[in-house]
Amino acid sequence: LGLALYACSLCAVSGATFLYHDYCVIGAGPAGLQAAYFLQQAGRDYIVFERSHAPGSFFALYPRHRKLISINKQYTGKSNSEFNLRHDWNSLLSHDRRLLFRRYSRDFFPNADTMVRYLEDFASLLKLRVQYNTAIIHVTLEKNEQAWNGHYFLLTDQDRKNYRCSSLLIAAGMWVPNVVNFPGSEYVEGYETVSINPEDFTGQTVLILGRGNSAFETAENILGVTNFIHMVSRSRVRLSWATHYVGDLRAINNGLLDTYQLKSLDGLLEGDLEDLAIIKDKKGKLHITLRFYLENRNISAGIDSITLPQDELDNFATRAPYDRVIRCLGWKFDFSIYNRSLRMMPGKGNIKKYPQIKPSYESRSTQGLFVLGTASHSVDYRKSAGGFIHGFRYTTRAVHRLLENRHHGVPWPSTVYPITQLTNSIIKRVNEASGLYQMFSVLADIILLRENATAFEYLEEYPIGVLAELEMQTGRKARNGLFVIIMEYGRNFSGADKDVFYYNRAVGEAQHAWQSNFLHPVIYYYKHLPTEREMRVRPPDWPLPRPNAIHHIVEDFLTDWTAPNAHILPLRRFLENCLSTDLRNFFAESCFLFAFTHQKLPPSCQQGYIQMQGLVGSQELRHHAVHAGLLQDYTHTDFSGDRPPDSHDGSQEQLIRDHGIPVRPLQHLVHAKDE
């Protein structure tokens, strides 16, 4: 019978009509719209399926109390749009300046309704191809050797319409509530349905299951009207300012911590929720007990026949009955619509609520299936911001670039610079790049050195988890060594049990930069591209394998890494040591002297002075260089001949005389211009 049903299903599929698109995107939330934007800009054939009548349907309901915890900083003191995105956690990436979130709200923590309106405008103003009221209810594979990945993805919606795609991008988010089943769990109200009217809790005693932002958000809403609130979870509270993870408890919601520590009745408890049991008495009160007390007993027999913990331990913490118990345990990924042929498997341990994916955000089991947005957070769970808009807007762009190279032969965007611009390029990026800043330890800038280190190729915001596959994934070659630039916190600075406000917590001197605690740039140098094995056996908590050399730019209170002595000079010397070259910029007089006293000229002389390039000298520049000690002052020397004292040619002759170089043979040479 099973074989017959399977055969019938194959016949039904083979006889169905499929609408084809190169790319199918499931979900028109922030990640789905961000992916659609990049696909549209590249001119690709795509469609976005959204089950609701408008984009961002998750935000139409959540958070329940309507205040987002993603910051919307209006002012930074700078006009650099890339820098300002470091402090704008709500905007999606686009070329349209109208679609910056600060134009929609001035609130530091905006209302969720504003996010819904913003996403609607993002989709409509950019004319993204979103098919609304289309719920994809089944996804399976169809083997086909001519397909990009050796198979097509077949999608079916609620109206039994069928779609065929070469690549599938899942951006459906995490919306299935986490539910813990235990005896009496039927008396528990869910975060998704509980009343948000504080008056409904007046004079009540409430127990909240969970300890994330949704739990504290719920407690904050009713803190002033309840008798007391208890909160229980299997793990201790984790404060975002201690862990440096934005998904942990934020200060805007932590009022209950005050009332707990200042002994105002509210409290926090730790315990495994699966060990709990709830018994309802005749008055409707809810009593907390432990599961093992109910073994071999009938819970429906009544509370009088059941042993409660306080019967044996009269000061049991939760001995007081509760009026309500609320579940606030977050959400998980919906695996139900994916056929076994896709082998969409949940992760293990702490990431079991997410699908298993590679660091490239592609499914571990099915080529061509990518997970975007919140559901892709397993790559950097509790490490970086990949589960939030200000993180996955960059990882979505990275996935798009990987797909452009794989399917359309478009290499990862890069820029080639002469080696003399190496220091400046790094300093510019670490001071303004928002992707590096938000996705610290996950996305990195890659500098590929050209032969003899005369030039370099700069790639921005590449996923370091697939560094070993860089050549294949980007279409760029790394034959002559590379630098990897990432942002990191100190190794031992983040954690739920860390005191991040201790005295002398910051480092200020460049020689101690490796001990920096706060977010700061780190540059790794590799003579050869790391292998997959080196990536696997890298030291614990290291984002990358051991490099040939490493440099920390000392942390800065203003996150402004432009100090000449503390930031730029140590970086330049590190780069010079790695490349065995001189990256300083020289005046024309110095290059002229080097040409006669050195076998090899510094790169700035080779690529500037010798090539008749550079800035034209002036009297003002010369005086500045003399005053700074960069040039000797020859302007007051008594020159022979008719040349005036400040003549450029006379200055060169005097420079040569001072170093014992004969002047007469140079009369047959064309004088070099002061550039």
Automatic annotation (TrEMBL):
Complexes and interactors? Interacts with SEL1L. May interact with OS9 and DNAJC10. Interacts with TXNDC16.
Q: Does the keyword Signal apply?
A: yes
Q: What is this protein called?
A: FAD-dependent oxidoreductase domain-containing protein 2
Q: Name one Pfam family in it.
A: Pyr_redox_3
Q: What's in the keyword line of the UniProt record?
A: Endoplasmic reticulum, FAD, Flavoprotein, Glycoprotein, Oxidoreductase, Signal
- Cellular component aspect of the GO annotation: endoplasmic reticulum lumen
Using the UniProt annotation, give all residue ranges assigned to the region (Disordered). 636-657
| InterPro entries per UniProt | Auxin_biosynth/cation_transpt, FAD/NAD-bd_sf
What is known about what this protein does? Probable flavoprotein which may function in endoplasmic reticulum associated degradation (ERAD). May bind non-native proteins in the endoplasmic reticulum and target them to the ubiquitination machinery for subsequent degradation.
Q: Which domain of life is it from?
A: Eukaryota
- Which metal ions or organic cofactors does this protein require, according to UniProt? FAD
Its family remark reads: Belongs to the FOXRED2 family.
